[in-house]
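Working notes for the structural subgroup meeting. M.R. asked for a predicted model of this chain before we commit to crystallization trials. I am recording the input and output together here so anyone reviewing the notebook later can reproduce the run.

Input as submitted:
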Amino acid sequence: MARRYAYGLLSALTLWGSAFAVEVEVSAEPLYTLVFDTGPGIPYTPLDTTAADTVYTVIDSGYTVWSHQWKFVSFHLPTTVAACDCLYVTVAAVNLSYDPSGGQTGISMDFFPHDSTDTLQFSYFPNTHWGHYYTYDTLRYGDTAVHRTYLNLDTYFRYILNRDYPTCRDLIMAISPTLSNDTHFVLSSTLYWTTQALDAAPEPRPTSPIARITVYPNPFVDSFVYDGPRTRFRIYDILGREIASGFADARSKVSLNNVPAGSYFFRADGSYRSGVIMLRKVE
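Returned structure, recorded in token form:
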């Protein structure tokens, strides 16, 4: 009887403690997209920094030069690492690997802790990350997937981070394809931080009804029709370059008669069920 009471008390205390934990969503803040080359005997060579949302890794035919475009984002942590119970990260992206039948692809996530005792300047250099996590998925060209750091290792992430960077308050993440000759269009990145320090963590954001947006016809020739709530929109090519922007209401006509045939992305600002839609322009 005493043993049963002890087990019951322990379970009650465990439930009572976990009831005060809250999972805080932290949206990524964009830093830059870095273009660089590597390869056997080739020093690390940054080529350019852009604001593109496309990431890729391409190897030339002789396997001598690897060209990369990686997107860097930052997360401002809601508490100190010591107050964190567990954490994980997701990256939503569209697969642009040219295998229409579907193939194995994925997203790599390199993490760079920003310790408050370190300099405030972040400088990237290959293989200096704190943690490297990746996914493998079978996706068709144009599929959207939410990639997640390894399931069931969330508390281990926090343990390693706390061991190595106990005063870390910012986490920087580099997003890239897992496999060579892959390309992805990055939609969003989110850190999920579980803590019991309610006074230091913001309240969970209230949920609101999710509106649906559509475009038609798709494929289109010169223009298409947007249907959904009023929004500011941006249209990108497959390299992540913005080619058009504006505002649209329900059943607004959007013209793209001055761009060549190909694949494009229509991106609406706001919380929509389909915030990014892949477009196809034909002759």
